[in-house]
Design brief:
Blueprint: H1 11-30, H2 40-68, H3 79-88, H4 93-98, H5 111-139, H6 148-151, H7 157-169, H8 176-195
Length: about 210
């Protein structure tokens, strides 16, 4: 899911990449992203699981962003995209409200840890472009028909990633808490996906009635 170097100075980003490479690989084994578009029920289940993780996490990030004024989430929010995709694919507001939310979030107590968490989320958005192509090829889903979460920034994806990396690399040392937050975010995400049944999801467990 994480993107490759796009020709910018990524000193802290490189440290984060190195610190999380095993976690990243483990998440991809838990949820093989290249195949999640094979069936609509499996895809809807993926969206439901991500909503259950992203919604409480974005709430914590927004609190830090608002209270510190030192990070900007404008245009990077994903919960509205997830909700919109699920509604497009048949979910009612009642069904969305009934989906479980992850109770074990990574610690985000300030800007350094928020940046570590955002590194995981923004890297996932960068890699989501690959998943978006699978969705279009396998299910005919695009950004207007239930795939906006993975299409996300569209043509602006590279620009958004570089802007985030530039902010990341302006963060002064020490970076221990940023690195710790990134690894914890991966760990919490993987544990949540497993708790929701990944990678054995089947149509009978579709979260949308």
């Amino acid at each position: 899911m994480l993107g490759k170097n796009l020709g910018v100075d990524r000193s802290l980003a490189n440290r984060l990449r190195d610190a999380t490479v095993a976690h990243h690989a483990s998440v991809e084994r838990t949820l093989p992203f290249a195949t999640l578009g094979h069936t609509l029920p499996a895809y809807r289940r993926v969206l439901g699981a991500f909503l259950g993780f992203y919604e409480p996490l974005e709430g914590r990030l927004q609190y830090v962003a608002t209270s510190s004024g030192d990070i900007d989430l404008m245009g990077r929010e994903k919960v509205s995209l997830l909700r919109g995709d699920m509604r497009m694919l048949g979910a009612s507001e009642e069904a969305l409200a009934a989906l479980p939310r992850c109770p074990a979030m990574p610690l985000i107590d300030g800007v350094p840890r928020a940046l570590g968490c955002m590194y995981v989320l923004e890297g996932a958005t960068l890699g989501g472009q690959i998943i978006a192509r699978h969705l279009k090829a396998q299910l005919g889903i695009d950004e207007r028909s239930g795939g906006s979460f993975f299409f996300a920034y569209g043509a602006e994806t590279g620009t958004m990633w570089r802007a985030f990396v530039a902010r990341l690399n302006r963060q002064p040392s020490p970076h221990d808490s940023t690195l710790a937050a990134a690894t914890e975010t991966f760990e919490r995400l993987e544990a949540w996906l497993v708790a929701q049944g990944a990678p054995t999801w089947i149509a009978e467990r579709d979260p949308i009635p």
